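User: Predict the structure for this protein chain, please.
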Amino acid sequence: MAEDVLKKFTALLKEVDVGYKMYWAKKDAKAPVKQRVKLERMATNLRYLQLKDKILNFRRNNLLLRFNVLAEKWERQATEKEMGLRLGTRAQYKDIAAKKTPDRPVKKPQAPAPSAAAGKGKPATGLRVLYKQFKAVNSRLGKTVVDYDTFKALIEKKIAVIKQKTQADTVRFVLKVEKGKPALKAKVIKHKKE
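Assistant: Here is the predicted structure, written as structure tokens:
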């Protein structure tokens, strides 16, 4: 029974991976979302499956690891596509075209870090990027998203609370997807005072 489940999971994993490759190559109009949801359910069930055979247990763990790696890859590619980045790179199409001039060398543009820096007089570009990523992940998951002003107010409120508790100079937020849900993780940065 367990061997059959592992074979089905392997086949579905390959099918979803090929589906995403076809989607990124623009040969399919839609990403294989339904198959991926089914695959995620199977992965959850596999995690809790009790196996006494060490070989099957090893195989299951390898399959789950492979699934996790591919799921992260699919999420990263979807985020890059929604942000207008070339897949697998950090350079934006429009920035490269705009910076090519014959009299100066071309520098690779760096995408802003996916975080929101909180400090006096700091620009909110990082917060905009964070909001776009948050919105993209939620829309992919079919969840409603608050507007930018509400998001900004929520982040600023959290920053104030964290700064008060930790006496930090800067608080950065990073978007992580855990168990299929977006989560904003705060990172406290304290500068040494001389």
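The longest helix spans residues 54-82.
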